[in-house]
Amino acid sequence: MSEPETHILVENLSLSFGDMLVQQDLNFSINRGEIFVIMGGSGCGKSTLMKAMIGLKRPSCGEVFLDGEPVWGVSKGEGGSRGGEGESNRLARKYGTLFQSGALWSSMTLAENVTLALKQFTDLSDARVREIAEYKLMLVGLAGFEDFYPSEISGGMKKRAGLARAMALDPEILFCDEPSAGLDPLSAKRLDDLMLQLRDSLNTTFVIVTHELDSIFSIADRALFLDAESKTQLGVGSPDELRHDHPSARVRAFMNRGEVS
Description:
Elements: E1 6-17, E2 20-31, E3 35-39, H1 46-53, E4 61-66, E5 69-70, H2 85-92, E6 95-98, H3 110-121, H4 126-139, H5 155-166, E7 173-177, H6 185-202, E8 205-209, H7 213-219, E9 222-227, E10 232-237, H8 239-244, H9 249-255
Parallel strand pairs: 3-8, 3-9, 6-7, 7-8
Antiparallel strand pairs: 1-2, 1-4, 4-5, 9-10
Helix pairs in contact: 3-4, 3-5, 4-5
């Protein structure tokens, strides 16, 4: 069996808002083609970490590397800034993002939402752009809903449409912020199954922010636990390892719904 290929590397990352420290000394890697979960209790900094990984929240120190290339171009202990606009756009093409609310434009049809990035970043014809949008919506089980507006579909369908939009430019990595939030159990299970299918068929790397244990145990290859009290990571590993074998009682309690194994 070949060694896993590192797709994302986080080194010595610290995050803060002014003088308020959110997380510090974060060090972990994510392999190509795996589903990696960032988890922890409310307010621990899960979404803030994801924003740093996609270039929306500047770290107070440390770096994030995509395929060995720095997202921020910062030295240890220094605040940083993104590179030139062209360089930032090139790195951004490597990933797509599914935001917690779906963040669809309500005045646009599902197909129009998906075509936004295609029209902005490619020179494809309108006919080809429409064809790609239909294909992406078909991949997430929304064939036939291209001309529906977000207000005309269910919450689960909105999440799938948001995922189709995130996939528009064929990214290598998909970041998903609380994808199951607000969904009923059946819709959440369907979304989990969809992400597994996309990972298996397209070798897409998924980085998922969630605290939903059912999803974590269903789809995660590995998971990172962020602790709000110590403001750092307490563990990285498979969900089963973290549930049964991790030395931290806080990690085991989280994975066992409050009962330390």
